[in-house]
Write a structure and sequence with these properties.
With about 170 residues, this protein is an alpha+beta fold. It contains 5 helices and 3 strands; from the N terminus they run H-H-E-E-H-E-H-H. Helix content is about 60%, strand content about 10%. The radius of gyration is 38 Å and the shape is elongated.
Length: about 170
């Protein structure tokens, strides 16, 4: 064999080996990707099954402790309401009677502060625009005379606007 033919045969053999190696590398990479994605899927399914079995165990525990099953996340989210501050006049109620009338630009937060020093078992509120809070609160205090609102000692309750001034407002109109 001539040196040129021998060199061409060697180059052809080297090229074939490089091509085979490239194919093997590509096959290994594809196999890794398939195995990787399969193992990721198996891991995700295993985690999901674990969560489902935890949920079943929690549901069973919930049923035995409270007599009812846990709500689903979907049902909770569906029943949710947008969060917003509520400005208004609120009423603390105890034993079926209004015991205190107050106002706040954030009623729900204000109710939490009363929990520590006022005795009540329920509450109600009405939404009122901020400029009207004093007037509406005063009207309810004078109308209901709640025992936990302060008084002047003469039977009149303390309110942002006195009953005399409220009556004067009405007569001015």
């Amino acid at each position: 064999m001539s040196p040129e033919k021998r060199r061409a045969a060697i180059e052809k053999s080297v090229a074939a080996r490089r091509e085979n190696k490239a194919k093997r590398d590509a096959d290994r990479l594809a196999t890794k990707q398939v195995h990787g994605s399969l193992s990721e899927k198996v891991l995700a399914l295993t985690e999901e099954l674990s969560q489902l079995s935890q949920i079943k165990a929690l549901n069973s525990t919930s049923k035995s402790l409270s007599g009812d099953y846990l709500l689903t996340a979907e049902s909770i989210i569906k029943a949710s309401m947008p969060f917003r501050k509520i400005c208004g006049v609120y009423f603390l109620i105890s034993g079926g009677a209004i015991v205190y009338v107050g106002q706040s630009v954030d009623v729900l937060t204000r109710l939490g502060t009363h929990e520590n020093f006022r005795s009540f078992d329920s509450y109600a509120y009405i939404e009122v625009e901020k400029p009207h809070l004093d007037l509406v609160e005063s009207l309810y205090i004078h109308a209901f005379n709640p025992p936990l609102n302060g008084d002047f000692g003469n039977g009149c309750k303390q309110a942002p606007i006195s009953l005399k001034n409220i009556l004067a407002m009405v007569s001015d109109k």
